[in-house]
Specification:
Distance between the termini: 41 Å
Structural class: mainly beta
Number of helices: 1
Strand content: 35-45%
Number of domains: 1
Largest sheet: 9 strands, antiparallel
Number of strands: 11
Order of helices and strands: HEEEEEEEEEEE
Shape: globular
Helix content: under 10%
């Protein structure tokens, strides 16, 4: 699927979900999200990236376990601005400017589309958020407008089998505001 097609599908999902959403305060850049993953008014969006990547699942003999992300984040002009990956401490993002943020687990979740991975709200781990770049001082991260990424519906064939499932999402990064 082309990036433009994925963005089109994601945009239609947002419109479909609009009746169930809350807006994050007066921040006109914040996405509309289900109430259970809303960010408080004292946090404002400071960075947005559009991600294309994979959710990596490993068969443990019973189920596919938790996904590990690997994605590239792009700005509105299509420039690569950050990478997204898993760490032992949780999901992480590293900007080209060198700043990094790690999200605390478990995240708050909302299923908006049953054919895609859930939308998430992760609190940033302040001990693992650093750098003077665009991700420094992040307080929360939203994963929204998800397309794909679900674990396979069929059982694995061997323990340790790895499957990479394509996905796309928007990530919004928040900082505390004095407003």
């Amino acid at each position: 699927m082309k990036t433009s097609q994925i963005k089109s599908v994601a945009a239609s999902l947002v419109c479909t979900a609009a009746t169930l959403v809350a807006h994050a305060g007066a921040d006109n850049r914040a996405p509309e999200v289900p109430f259970e993953i809303a960010v408080g008014d004292n946090n404002k969006v400071h960075f947005h990236g559009y991600a294309i990547g994979v959710q990596i699942y490993t068969w443990n003999g019973t189920d596919w376990g938790n996904a590990v992300p690997r994605a590239t984040l792009f700005d509105d002009d299509g420039n690569v601005v950050a990478t997204h990956f898993g760490t032992p401490n949780g999901p992480a993002w590293r900007s080209n400017s060198g700043s990094e943020v790690v999200g605390k687990l478990p995240p708050k979740r909302a299923t908006v589309d049953r054919t895609a991975i859930p939308w998430l709200l992760l609190a940033a781990n302040p001990d693992l958020t650093h750098g003077p770049g665009i991700l420094g001082e992040t307080t929360f991260i939203h994963r929204v407008n998800t397309v794909g990424g679900l674990a396979p519906a069929v059982a694995g064939t061997t323990i340790g089998q790895v499957v990479e499932v394509p996905y796309a999402a928007d990530y919004f990064f928040y900082r505390q505001s004095n407003d």
